[in-house]
Amino acid sequence: RCSVDNRVTRVAWLNRSSILYAGNDKWCLDPRVVLLANTNTQYSILIKDVDVYDEGPYTCSVQTDNHPKT
């Protein structure tokens, strides 16, 4: 889950160097990864049937006033 506010202009979910979602657009092919929320306050994903191969860092990246943050 990633908390956002009205200053955020762009959002993305990443895993290692792969983009999972950019805004509402799904970039990964894994059908287990779904976008739960993309609202003014929350940007969340869900990974169904998680297994050991899903281990690793998941990063929410946001852009505010042309300044990216993770």
Automatic annotation (TrEMBL):
Keywords: Cell membrane, Disulfide bond, Glycoprotein, Lipoprotein, Membrane, Repeat, Signal. One of its GO terms (cellular component) is plasma membrane. One of its GO terms (biological process) is cell adhesion. Its main location: membrane. It comes from the Eukaryota. It is found in: Cell membrane. Residues 1-70 form the Ig-like domain. This is CEPU1 protein. It comes from Geococcyx californianus. The lineage of its organism: Eukaryota, Metazoa, Chordata, Craniata, Vertebrata.
